[in-house]
Structures are given as structure tokens and as C-alpha cells.
Amino acid sequence: MAETTTVYEMIGGADTIAALVDAFYSRVVEHPGLRPLFPDDITPVRNRQYKFLTQLFGGPRLYSDLYGPPMLRAKHLPHPVTPERAAEWLACMSGAMDEIGLQGPVRDFMFSRLQQTAYHMVNTEDPE
């Protein structure tokens, strides 16, 4: 029986996910459109994101084991997530991926999954 290699393994596992989360949140905390959506202490959010991305890309089930099923849309309903904010979130993630050197088909796959997730979170229209 052939072993399956996960995206998590392909990119280098925990260290790469941690670097991605760090690079991403360094952008988010400086972003005027995104920063207001997050608490003053962003550490718990960073930790949840690390666990979620680890699980999403085939690593250990850190998120579900601690928090249960992700149910991300329901968890984001209290926050006004607009199409513009989803795009801004994705721009921060793309920049973070560039910073840590994620390239090629694995990066494309990861970004595609994150695009689906980001736009699934949209729950408010952009202001006119």
C-alpha cells in the first residue's frame, strides 16, 4: 500500500505552518481594514489559525481535537466579513506565502483552498 504525502508534509510541517501564521499576522495587525476585526491580544487567534491550517493541510487534527468541528462560517458571523475584507485577507496570506518562500503547485493548491474558505466566510456586503 502506497503512503500518501500530505500538503503539510510537502511544505515542511509544523515549522512552515508556524512561519506562515507569523508572516500572515504581522501583515494583519498592520492592515487598517482587517485589524479592527481582531482582539487587541491577537495571540489566541494566531494559535487557533496555526491549529486550523495544520489540520486543513493534512497535519495532526489539532483544531478539531481542541475546539470541535471548525464550523468557520458560524464562528465568523459576529464579524462583518465583506468581499473586500476577504480579498484583503487573501492578499495578506499571499504576501505571507511569498515571504516564507512557498512556491509552485503546492502553493497554488493551498491558496485555492484558502480562497474558497475566505469567500465562504463573507456575511456582509461591501459598503456602497
From TrEMBL:
Record key words, sorted: Heme, Iron, Metal-binding, Transport
InterPro entries per UniProt: GlbO/GLB3-like (IPR044203), Globin-like_sf (IPR009050), Globin/Proto (IPR012292), Hemoglobin_trunc (IPR001486)
GO MF annotation terms: heme binding; metal ion binding; oxygen binding; oxygen carrier activity
Pfam families reported in the protein's UniProt record: Bac_globin (PF01152)
Family: Belongs to the truncated hemoglobin family. Group II subfamily.
Protein known as: Globin
Species of the source: Alicyclobacillus mengziensis
